[in-house]
Design a protein that fits this description.
The protein is an alpha+beta fold and 260 residues long. The protein has helices at residues 99-102, 127-141, 147-154, 162-176, 180-199, 205-213, 218-229, 233-239, 242-249; strands at residues 4-9, 19-27, 35-36, 44-48, 54-56, 62-64, 68-71, 79-81, 86-93, 113-115. The strands form 2 sheets. Strands 1-2-9-4-7-10 form a 6-stranded antiparallel β-sheet, sandwiched between helices. Strands 3-8-5-6 form a 4-stranded antiparallel β-sheet. Helix 5 (180-199) crosses helix 6. The protein is globular. The N and C termini lie far apart (42 Å).
Length: 260
């Protein structure tokens, strides 16, 4: 579309340990087509300033999203469709950065969208206002991170005895919402789209991108497309548009290997 706009900005330094990116998307006249959202290993705070999207439930019914929502980790397809003019502002958290904001285990939010309308007396209208609101929450609630989980997200931790490793695995699930193995799978799948951008329509694009991302063969790539998007790579490429296209090609880059 010519009238849809996606933009990102870095969070202010005081939020940088928790928030990866702030982003906004608007479309004055969306087409109404179905949008399949690529998982990226992060949770998000979404504020609909325009018409909220409808989301396809597991029962086949379409339901309107809340105007303010927390989107947990994705391990299965997320299918949306616009209901009118779109204007979204959002914060994309680091994989472990949303735990102090939500103030509950991120496992409870995995594959869920949680209504947060009651959290905001007056929803912010700009990314700067959203950042200020989050920073007040950070100060009031004294947000903190688990250093062991943050280290596991970025690099291989020191050798641990079995009891300590199990404790770290539990903390990882609590702070990230999925296991380290699942997060690695999501990150590898995400890298397929990052690499596809650089192949520029080459023959066998999805296979080449998948092999570069660490997949062994076409069937393995196809399984993850069905797992995370509920369609084939060819179908996704044909259907992608608007928000789904923007989020699949934005500047988020996967961060290291989670090792627990």
């Amino acid at each position: 579309m010519a009238d849809d706009v996606y933009e990102e900005m870095a969070p202010p330094p005081r939020l940088a340990d928790f928030v990866l990116k702030l982003w906004t998307y608007s479309a004055a006249a969306p087409s109404g087509v179905v949008q399949r959202i690529v998982p990226d290993g992060c949770c998000e705070l979404i504020v609909h300033l325009g018409a909220p999207y409808e989301e396809l439930g597991g029962d086949g019914a379409w339901r309107l999203q809340p105007e303010v929502l927390f989107a947990g980790q994705l391990t299965r397809p997320l299918v949306l469709r616009p209901t009118g003019p779109v204007h979204v502002i959002a914060a994309r958290f680091h994989p472990d950065g949303a735990r102090p904001f939500l103030d509950r285990s991120l496992r409870q939010a995995t594959d869920r969208r949680i209504d947060l309308m009651g959290e905001m007396a007056v929803p912010p209208r700009t990314l700067a206002q959203l950042a200020d609101w989050l920073d007040r929450r950070r100060e009031d609630d004294r947000w903190s991170l688990d250093p062991a989980v943050r280290a596991a997200l970025a690099e291989r931790p020191a050798d641990l005895d079995p009891a300590a490793r199990r404790a770290l695995q539990r903390a990882f699930l609590d702070r990230v919402g999925v296991s380290a193995q699942t997060l690695r799978s999501i990150r590898r799948f995400r890298q397929v789209f990052e690499r596809a951008e650089h192949l520029d329509g080459a023959a066998g694009l999805w296979l080449k991108a998948g092999l570069e991302a660490g997949y062994f063969d076409q069937p393995q790539i196809a399984r993850d497309f069905r797992r995370f998007l509920g369609c084939t790579a060819t179908d996704w490429a044909r259907q992608q548009s608007e928000l789904a296209r923007a989020l699949s090609s934005e500047s988020y880059k996967t961060m290291g290997e989670a090792t627990v």
